Amino acid sequence: MNEKKSEPYLGPYERDIQQLLNCSAEDAMMIEHIMRDDVLHTVALDWLSARAFNTAARKAAKLLEADRAEYEAYFAGVRAAFERMRAAKDAHA
User: What is the pTM (predicted TM-score) of this model?
Assistant: First the structure.
């Protein structure tokens, strides 16, 4: 049976990034985190003007393209850790 891979849930910032940059859902998720961690060094994005948000998203996209393998490896590790925690929680439920 062929199961179609479902699209990941995108939050409002990720949807804005995807629309702005015409990128995949996976890239939009990574770009949002890169914006927070490597470009703006803040968890909050709600204080940004539209122009500042767009500028930060473009900078984050450039960082992703420059170091894609490193970022993909990092986010794969984060997802794997999350899945391990989920499995451990389910095992104790």
Answer: 0.81
- How far apart CA 60 and CA 54 sit, in angstroms, is 10
3-state secondary structure 15-68: HHHHHHHCCCHHHHHHHHHHHHHHHCCCCCCCCCCHHHHHHHHHHHHHHHHHCH
| Cα separation, 31 vs 37, whole angstroms | 10
CA dihedral for 26, 31, 32, 33, sign (positive or negative)? positive
- pLDDT for 33-58, tens place per residue? 999 999 999 999 999 999 999 999 99
In which residue are the tokens 């989920």 written?
86
State both tokens at 18: 């995807």
